Amino acid sequence: MAHSHQHDLIDLRAKLRGKDHRITKPREEILDLLGKEEHPVTAKTIHEKLSESCDLVTVYRSLKMLESMDLVKRFDFGDNTARFELICPDDNGHHHHLICKECRTVVEIDECFDSNLESRIAKKHGFAEVTHQLEFFGLCSSCQTT
Question: What counts of helices (H) and strands (E) characterise the chain?
Answer without folding.
Answer: 6, 6
